[in-house]
UniProtKB/TrEMBL annotation:
The protein's required cofactors: Co(2+); Zn(2+); Mn(2+); Fe(2+)
Gene: map
Protein name: Methionine aminopeptidase
Catalysis: reaction(s): Release of N-terminal amino acids, preferentially methionine, from peptides and arylamides
GO biological process, one term: proteolysis
One Pfam family, short name: Peptidase_M24
Species of the source: Lachnotalea glycerini
Domain Peptidase M24: 12-241
Binding site for substrate: 78, 177
GO molecular function: initiator methionyl aminopeptidase activity; metal ion binding; metalloaminopeptidase activity
Keyword line: Aminopeptidase, Hydrolase, Metal-binding, Protease
CDD domains hit by this protein: MetAP1 (cd01086)
Entry binding sites for a divalent metal cation 1: 96, 107, 234
Presence of keyword Protease: yes
Length: 251
């Protein structure tokens, strides 16, 4: 496993990529409402990314046809935008996006409410987000990677939720997906020792029901097998000698 340690210069570029992506997500949150199509969200997102002279990380990545992954309700990740897919009151929507800034990637995801949503849906979104923060308590130099994984899974599973196993987080840098893979559930081993300068895309994907998922016929969209709601929360994280730095964070 070749995990890259980023130089000071590379970290600066990744900070800028993260800052830009945080702004993309902040602007996209403002347009989410009943009646908008997922294709409109994709177009707005791509336009914002390009306005910063950045390239969308996802567009044409392994053949993916859009710039923003837009996943609704039981869709876990990689939903393909469509002009015929219209958001409705009560939906939850996960937006996953990445940007390339001067050759370096950032990657982040958020799940949002569409209008008024059920208490159960709201709780799933909140627990998924908090599971990320439970995990990054261990994202410090000298700790081991799978301490993050265990903390995420333990927290989400304490609410009876299913932690997706077929999809994991990843390293990130001049490539969108780098070593190491980062599961969101307990592993038998401790994993590699974390070092300052590592950059990780940590991304809990949590189902309200079982953890099992399946792929739709488009070969991209992943859904919960039991049809339960799913939420996704992700940031690009820099490991430091102290507290981790969240490169894609916005309030």
């Amino acid at each position: 496993m070749a995990v890259t340690i980023k130089s000071d210069r590379e970290i600066e570029l990744m900070r800028e990529a993260g800052k830009i992506l945080a702004n993309v997500h902040k602007e996209l949150e403002k347009v989410i409402r009943p009646g908008i199509s997922t294709m409109d969200i994709n177009k707005i997102g791509e336009d914002i990314i390009r306005s910063y002279d950045c390239i969308p990380s996802f567009l044409n990545y392994n053949g993916y046809p859009a710039s923003i992954c837009v996943s609704i309700n039981d869709e876990v990740v990689h939903g393909i935008p469509s002009k015929d897919r219209i958001l409705m009151e009560g939906d939850i929507i996960s937006l996953d996006a990445g940007v390339i800034y001067k050759g370096f990637h950032s990657d982040a995801a958020r799940t949002h409410a569409v209008g008024e949503i059920s208490a159960d849906a709201k709780k799933l979104i909140e627990v998924t987000k908090q599971s990320f923060f439970e995990g990054i308590k261990f994202a410090k130099e000298g700790n081991h990677l799978f301490e993050i994984s265990e903390a995420i899974g333990r927290y989400a599973e304490s609410f009876g939720y299913g932690v997706v196993r077929d999809l994991v987080g990843h390293g990130i840098g001049c490539n969108l997906h780098e070593d190491p893979q980062i599961p969101n559930f307990k592993q038998r081993r401790r994993g590699l020792k974390l070092q300052a300068g590592m950059t990780l895309a940590i991304e809990p994907m949590i189902n309200a029901g079982r953890y099992d998922v399946e792929w739709l016929e488009d070969d991209w969209t992943v859904v919960s097998e039991d049809g339960s709601l799913s939420a996704h929360y992700e940031n690009t994280v820099l490991i430091t000698k102290g507290e981790p730095e969240l490169l894609t964070m916005y309030e």
